[in-house]
Amino acid sequence: MFERNDRYLGIGCVVLGVLAYFSASRWRVMLGADPAGPGGIPKILAAGIAGIGVLLIVGSFLLKKEGKGKPFFTRGELLVTVALTAISVAYILLLPVLGYLIATPLLIASILVTLGRRKPLPVILISVVATLVLFLLFYSLLRVNLPLGFMRTTIDSLGIRL
């Protein structure tokens, strides 16, 4: 699972995690009732990145003592990881424009196809149902303002109040 070169990736993860943590610690609360503040979630993610870095470093040193190991990623796994990262970046960029109700099923369908689902009917059903369930949960029940993109003007002009 670990290669000797993973220690360099681990060191990079620890440095990135520490920098991100201290950067998030400097964010100030403007308005809010969140006790963790605006840096709460970024601090948790930064600590996770640093923790993964420590695991990589420790694993690479243990491997050095054993003297054997397999590559961390196969070529196919690396391609899937790169594809999923590109899909996620595209989703983040398209979300404000298309809105949650259009961008999210596209995200879910893209992920399913990338991970090997090929039959269109299950992919479409899973994408649409999951999006609607999440929308109802977050937008209606939890009152989270999800981006509606160009659909906001359509919904407002129809007089629909979500």
Which structural traits does this protein have?
single chain, 162 residues, mainly alpha
Can you lay out the helices and strands and say which pair or pack?
Blueprint: H1 6-25, H2 40-66, H3 75-98, H4 100-114, H5 120-141, H6 151-157
Helix pairs in contact: 1-2, 3-4, 4-5
Structure description:
By secondary structure, the chain is mostly helical. The protein has helices at residues 6-25, 40-66, 75-98, 100-114, 120-141, 151-157. Helix 1 runs antiparallel to helix 2 (40-66) and helix 3 (75-98) packs antiparallel against helix 4 (100-114). It is flat.
Oligomeric category: single chain
- Measured by DSSP, the beta-strand proportion falls in under 5%
Low-confidence segments, ≥5 residues, pLDDT <50? none
**What is the residue-mean pLDDT, rounded to a whole number?**
79
Structural class based on helices, strands and sheet pairing: mainly alpha
* Major sheet characteristics: none
Query: What helical percentage do the residues reach?
Result: over 70%
Rg measurement, Å: 21 Å
Cα end-to-end separation: 48 Å
- The DSSP helix count reads 6
User: How many β-strand stretches?
Assistant: 0
Order of helices and strands: HHHHHH
Globally, the shape reads flat
